[in-house]
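Researcher: If only I could read C-alpha cells as easily as an amino acid sequence. Walk me, if you will, through where the backbone shape changes along the chain. I have put the entry right below:
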Amino acid sequence: MDAKQKRRAATENGDAGEDLVLATLIGNGDDLGPLVRHALEMGRPEGLLHQLKTVVKKKEVEIEELCKTHYEEFILAVDELRGVLVDAEELKGELSSDNFKLQEVGSALLIKLEELLESFSIKKNVTEAIKMSKRCVLVLDLCAKCNNHISESQFYSALKTVDLIEKNYLHTIPVKALRMVIEKRIPVIKLHIEKKVCSQFNEWLVHIRSSAKNIGQTAIGHAASARQRDEEMLERQRKAEEQSVFSLGDFAYMLDVEAIDEGSVLKFDLTPLYRAYHIHTCLGVQEQFREYYYKNRVLQLSSDLQISSAQPFVETYQTFLAQIAGYFIVEDCVLRTAGGLLSADQVETMWEIAIAKMTSVLEEQFSYMDSATHHLLVKDYVTLLGSTLRQYGYEVGPLVEVLDRGRDKYHELLLKECRLQIVNILANDTYEQMVMKKDTDYENNVLAYNLQNLDIMPAFPYIAPFSSMVPDACRTVRSFIKGSVDYLSHGVHSNFYDVVKKYVDKLLIDVLNEAILNTISSGTIGVSQAMQITANISVLERACDFFLRHAARLCGIPARTVERPHASLTAKVVLKTSRDEAYISLLNLVNTKLNEFMTLTESINWTSEEIAQNGNENMNEVIIYLDTLLSTAQQILPMDALFKVGSGALEHISNSIVAAFLSDNVKRFNANAVMGINNDLKMLESFADERFHSTGLSEIYKDGSFRRCLIEARQLINLLLSSQPENFMNPVIRQKNYSTLDYKMVANICDKFKDSPDGIFGSLSSRNTKQSSRKKSLDVLKKRLKDFN
C-alpha cells in the first residue's frame, strides 16, 4: 500500500515537473515540435496529451480567475466594442460609397494608366533600339575607318581599329548577323594586312640591297676623308718638328677642325622594316617575322658575296666591297634600333660568313694579280672597308691579316715593275753629264734627292756630275718607297719602318745594283760610259741617306732615328762595292785603250842608232788621252775615284813599259832605246806631277803622287842607265833605289841589254872608258844575277 502511494506520488511529482516544463515552453511561445517528436519517437503520446490537457485545465482556471478579477472592466470593454462595431458599420457604408465613387473616377484613370505604361514600354523599346543602332553605327564607323586605313596603307592604324572592335565592341554588338559578319572579316583583314606589309617589306628588301652599294661607298668615302685629314695633320706635325730641330724658337700645333657636311651623313630609310616588324608584333607573329627577315638577309648576303667571273676583279672590287660594307652598316643599325628584330649572335654569324668569303676571295685574287698598282688599289680599299666597319664594332682582323700575308707578293710585283723601269732607264741613258738650264730642273733633279754638293744655288746652265739615270732611278726608288709605305700602312703593324727599310735594301741591291753590274759586265760600254756609271754609283751612295730619311718620314719615324750609327741601308755598302767593281771595269777599259796606244814592241826601234829626243809618237798620244781622261774624270768623279783612275792608268803604263822589255818579241835592245823610253817616261812624270797638282789631289794626298805610279818603270830605266848597275845586288842600294824590281825580271831584261857592233856603245866601246866600265859593271850584274838565280 505504501509502495503504491509512493509510486503514485513519484508519478505525480514527475508529471508535475513535466507539466511545468510544458507550461513554460507554451508561455514563452517556444516551438513544441521537438517535444512532440520526442514523445512520438518514445512511443508515449498519451502522456503528452495528458500533460497538454493538464496545461489547458490550468490555463482555463487562470482565465476564470482573471475574468473574475477584471469582470467589470470586461463589461465596459464589451460595451465599447459594440459601439465600435456600430461605428464600423457606419464607416463601412461610407467606405462603400466612397469606393463606388472612386471606382467611377478611377476607371478612366486606369485606362490612361494602361496607355501610359504602354507608352513607357514603347519608349523603352525605342530607346533600346536607338542604343543598339548607335552601337552598330559606331562599330560600322570603325569598320569604315579600318577600310580607309587599309586603303591608305596605314596598316598599324587599321590593326589598332580592328583590335578596338575585337576587344571592346564585338561581344556587345546587339545584332547577331552583324556580329557574325565582323567576326568572319577580322581574320581576313589581318591576313590581308600581313600580306600587304610583307609585300612592302619585300620591296624594301630589294631597295635596301640596291642601296647598300651607295651606303658602303659613302661610308668608305668618309673613312678616306678622315684618313686624309689625319695624314695631313701628321704631315704638318712632322714638318713642325723638323723645323723645330733647326730653330730654337717656340712652335705650337694647330688643330684644324673641319665641319662635317650634314648632308653627307649616312641616310637610309628603315621605316618599312620598323612598320613591318611592329605590325607583325601586333599580329602576334613577331618570331615568324624575325626568322623571315634573317633568312632573306642571309640569302642576300650570300648573293652579294658572289663575284662575277665576266669582269676582272680589279674592275669590280669596289662595288663588291662597298656592297658588303653597306650591308653590314644596315644590319648594325637594325640591331641597334629595331627593338630585338636581330640578335647580336645573328649579326656575328652573318659577319663570320662574310669575313670567311672575303678573305678567301682576296687571297685568290691576290694570287692572280700581276700588277702592283692593282694590288695596292685593292689593299687600300680593303683597309678603308676595315676602318669603316671597325667603327660599327665589327672584327676586321682577318681582313688585315690577309693583306699582311700578301705583302711579299705585292713587293715582288713592285720590284718587278721597278726592275723594268730601271732597265729601261739604264738602256736609255746617254751616259753624259746632265745639263740643267733653270732652277726648277735643279730642284727636281738635285735638291729633291739631296744630291747637291753645295748648299747654294749654282749658276746656270749647271752641269751635274751624274747622268739622267741618277734622278730617274731616284724617282723610281722614291716611288717604290711610297708604294711600300702605302701598302704597309694601316695594316697589322703600326711600326713598319724596318719592313720598308728591308724592301728598299732589296730594291737597291737586287734590282738597281744588279742592273748596274749587268750593264758594267755587258761588254758594250766604253771608257766614258764606265766613268759615268762610276760617278753615278757614287751619287747613288749619297742618295741612300735620302732614301732612308724619306722612308722614315713617310713611316712617321723621327729623323734622329735614321741618323744614328749603324742605321744606314745595307745597300750603301753594296753600292760601294759595286763602285769598286765599276772602278775595276773602268780601269780595264782605260788599260785596254792604253794598250792600243802603247804598242811599244812594235813602235819602238829597240836597236836604234839614234836617241829619240822628243819621245815616241805613241807616247804623245797616250799623254793626250790621259789628259782627256783625267779632265773628264775631274768633272764627274769624286776625288778618291779620280786618284784611283789616274793612278791605275799610270801604273798600267809603267807595267806596260816593263812588260815591253820582258816581251818575247824584244830579243835585244840597246842604250839608245832605253834613253828614248827614258824621255817618254820623263814626259809622263811631268804630266803626272802637273795633273796631280792642278786637280787638287796634292792637297788631299799630301804623302802621295801620280809619279809614284811610274816607280817600277823609273827604277828599271834608272838601273839600265846607271853607271854601276852591279849595285843592284847591294841590299842597301837596292832597297833605296830599286825596291820594286825583281831579281828574275832584272836578269831577263839585262840578258837582252846588248850593244850591237854598229851601235853607239859598240862603236865607241874601244874609245870610251866610261862606257866600257859601265858595260863591265853590267856584265858583273848579269853574272851575279845568274849565280843568284
Summary: The first helix runs from residue 2 to 28.
